[in-house]
Amino acid sequence: MLINELSKRTGITAHTIRFYEKSGLIKGKRDERIKSNNYFHYDDETVEKLELISDAKSIGFTLSEIGQLMEAWYNNKITIPEKVLLLEEKLRSIDEKIKHLKEMKKMIAEFKKSVEEENC
Amino acid sequence: MLINELSKRTGITAHTIRFYEKSGLIKGKRDERIKSNNYFHYDDETVEKLELISDAKSIGFTLSEIGQLMEAWYNNKITIPEKVLLLEEKLRSIDEKIKHLKEMKKMIAEFKKSVEEENC
DNA sequence: AACAACATTAGAGTATAGTCTATACTTGTA
DNA sequence: TACAAGTATAGACTATACTCTAATGTTGTT
């Protein structure tokens, strides 16, 4: 598929997709048989990758962290123990984030209660 | 206390503290009695606020969201029902974040398992 | 008095993550 | 064939959140 369809399927603008391409997060392929243009062609894996990018971004991972994660996910240049290590690191960082969020939630909930009581 | 002590107490650089001051997140007071300088003086509440900023930032709130939160926390120009609404909104957004993190964690854990099994 | 340490402001610079514009070429449809 | 729609690239622009520098003045210590 071309960039426009990829954009429609993922909800990510063509501009941003090109930005991710330039950043090395995704890779379109050029069709050697077609000489009249040099349009990038994308496969379903790229759709998956863009979805992963969206998800990972929404939980606060930077693009460079997401890049590492996708190395482990899709790339075989990295050894299995290295993959496992990387994934464990990400799991730890997610646990940290969850811990912080829970603390913050408790803090806000307590404060909300005190505000409501003040109200009476 | 002056900016240097505030910085030492919070672990936030004086540069960043001044940036927060300019952004309206904290407010130092000038001592009217002292005419020779116009140094900002900070109280313990500012220490608290800076700690809140650090915490809220670590869980992915933007400075402008943190500003709103601190309006509710410290400011009485906002009515109690408004405060409660704002706090509820932040609680919801934290729950959303936690939900996303848990989904991501599950995904990564499953992938890690499959990588490890592949290893045998 | 000398001098280090600290304070202020203005403004420049950096990193991240886009977002948009201009230019130019290609493709598909009326 | 005209022309709208799609594609590529380079580069400018934006927003957020700092981070640093320069210029200048103040305070505290020897």
TrEMBL record, chains A, B:
Q: Which organism is it from?
A: Flavipsychrobacter stenotrophus
User: Which N-terminal residues, if any, form the signal peptide?
Assistant: none
Taxonomically, the superkingdom here is Bacteria
State what protein this is by name: MerR family transcriptional regulator
Keyword Repressor assigned to the entry: answer is yes
HTH merR-type domain segment(s): 1-72
**Matching Pfam families, A to Z?**
MerR_1
Q: What keywords were assigned to this record? A: DNA-binding, Repressor, Transcription, Transcription regulation
Q: What is the lineage of its organism?
A: Bacteria, Pseudomonadati, Bacteroidota, Chitinophagia, Chitinophagales
Q: Which GO terms describe its molecular function?
A: DNA binding; DNA-binding transcription factor activity
